[in-house]
TrEMBL record:
Key word Repeat present: yes
Naturally occurring in which organism (per UniProt): Smithornis capensis
Keyword annotations from UniProtKB, A to Z: Leucine-rich repeat, Repeat
Pfam families: LRR_1 (PF00560), LRR_8 (PF13855)
GO CC entries: plasma membrane
Protein name as catalogued: LRC66 protein
InterPro entries: Leu-rich_rpt, Leu-rich_rpt_typical-subtyp, LRR_dom_sf, LRR_TM_domain-containing
Length: 222
């Protein structure tokens, strides 16, 4: 392929018109850039199931519409995953959707244990992906400019390390009062600008730590 490999850290396949991840690529790259291509499908594992030491993976500006992270057991040190500007309508993190009011998820061992930043901006998500709590190191989640309509109490359940949530420019009309209740480490931003909220959120805001948190609510329907 036309990918460039510096032999140590960076695998650069950006704007090479590839439609799939090259099978012969180095698994020792720390940074891998596959942005601005024609990739429709990304499979975390291949037939060899070799571990990849990549820490920063960029799949932005491709043609991905569905993506499952449930098999990503070969990315043990991945810290940032950039999925911006695709056509993702389904992002699967667990294979079983919990029943309403349930506090349990299907346990998946070694599901991206080091992932800190998940970015899925400018896609076609209608809901927050179920199972974010399985990403035990997750600190930042960016989901602006999708079509998310509401925030349910289980959406950020068990996200004990989460510090930053960006939900700007969605179609959110409803946020459950307990949606952010147990996120004790939120300390950067909850961005809800440019949504369709019609009523203030006192119950939600009271449960947050005002001394460390910035909450953006401008350009809503109220």
């Amino acid at each position: 392929s036309e990918c460039q490999w510096d032999g140590e850290f960076l695998l650069n396949c950006s704007s090479t018109r590839i439609s799939a991840i090259p099978e012969d690529m180095s698994r020792t790259a720390i940074v891998a850039d596959f942005s601005y291509n024609n990739i429709k499908t990304f499979l975390c594992t291949d037939g060899r199931n070799e571990e990849w030491v990549v820490e920063h993976l960029n799949l932005s500006n491709n043609l991905i519409s569905e993506l499952s992270l449930t098999t990503c057991t070969n990315l043990p040190v991945l810290e940032t995953l950039n999925l911006n500007d695709n056509a993702i309508h389904t992002l699967t993190l667990d294979t079983s959707i919990p029943a309403p009011r349930s506090k349990t998820y299907r346990i998946v061992d070694h599901l991206l244990p080091a992932l800190k930043v998940l970015s899925v901006e400018r896609n076609n998500l209608n809901t927050v992906p179920r199972g974010l709590g399985l990403l035990q190191s997750l600190q930042t989640v960016h989901m602006s400019s999708n079509s998310i309509q509401q925030i349910d109490p289980q959406d950020f359940q068990n996200c004990s390390q989460l510090k930053d949530i960006d939900l700007q420019n969605n179609k959110i009309t409803k946020i459950h009062p307990d949606a952010f209740r147990d996120l004790n480490k939120l300390q950067v931003v909850v961005d809800l600008r440019e949504n369709a909220l019609t009523v203030p959120l006192p119950q939600i805001l009271i449960s947050l730590n005002f001394f460390q948190l910035e909450v953006y609510l401008s350009n809503n329907a109220w």
